[in-house]
Amino acid sequence: MQIIILSFLCFLxxxxxxENFEKDVLLPRISGGEDVYPYDFPWQxxxxxxxxxxxxxGALIDAYWVLTAAHCMxxxxxxxxxxxxxxxxxxxxxxxxxxxxxxxxxVNPFFNGARPEFNYxxxxxxxxxxxxxxxxxxxxxxxISLPDQNLSYSKxxxxxxxxxxxxxxxxxxxxxxxxxxxxxDNNVCRYTWGYYIYYGNICVYTYGVTPCQGDSGGPxxxxxxxxxxxxxxxxxxxxxxxxxxSIYTRITENLAWIHDVIDNDGHH
Length: 268
Ligand SMILES: *[C@@H]1O[C@H](CO)[C@@H](O)[C@H](O)[C@H]1NC(C)=O
Ligand SMILES: *[C@@H]1O[C@H](CO)[C@@H](O)[C@H](O)[C@H]1NC(C)=O
Hints:
- Residues 1-18 form the signal peptide.
- One of its GO terms (molecular function) is serine-type endopeptidase activity.
- The chain is mainly β.
- It has helices at residues 14-18, 186-193, 255-262, and strands at residues 3-6, 23-26, 29-31, 34-35, 44-49, 54-62, 65-68, 81-85, 98-107, 127-131, 157-162, 177-182, 201-204, 210-212, 219-224, 227-238, 246-250.
- The strands form three sheets. Strands 1, 2, 4, 11, 12, 13, 15, 16 and 17 form a nine-stranded mixed beta sheet that branches. Strands 5-6-7-10-9-8 form a six-stranded antiparallel β-barrel.
- Strand 6 and strand 7 (65-68) form a beta hairpin.
- It is globular, with a radius of gyration of 17 Å.
- It starts with a strand and ends in a 6-residue tail after the last helix.
């Protein structure tokens, strides 16, 4: 089994090579999904170069802030990238899109091993993008709620979304894809991925449904008493987008960091 990082970037963590992984780093997308009903997921963000090239997903959590995967920001500068909200079909201008530039990229300080999680694969794979001007919140563009601290969101049916590849040999999807998917107990996920899985991960698996290259950074949302909440951000998975659990970064383990950043940003 090989690991793939679910972005459309060419990126290889150095410690992977050191551990003699067979890895392949790609750009993310969902295999086994279906077209979303337009604007049902108004927090879904496309992260692009200024050329319009989509390489990762994200989740709007506030009019000024998008949450994505830290590995999507490897070697990126704020002025090289933009975010698009209110997007449905990437190639079509639907007049609902809002384009914003980025003023700051803030990577989780524990990403890639400043702590005991060093031995896990891509620990704390999260980054916050600050928009230079806030998006206008409307029917097409809405933030996703953050979860409660003490909910595990395991053993549920939740939803993944993204414009990533629809199969290992397919292209990225032009229309945003969604799929229902089961969330696993981490101990069950370890049957497949062993010690790469730590408490800050949440694994998803449903036969025939797999996030794939181009889906990295995109959201896993679960229905809760207050509506949909953000349970995870797409991090990595099987290189062939095959029939194995995919790994998200668990938001409940990162709430303190998220609040530290966005509650002290000068916008609130
Ligand atoms: C966003 O950044 C691009 C590239 O630097 C620039 O051309 C464009 O004018 C910027 N847009 C806004 C609204 O600042
Ligand atoms: C945590 O869980 C307990 C019981 O399961 C519940 O009563 C409490 O409200 C929860 N706290 C938060 C912050 O969600």
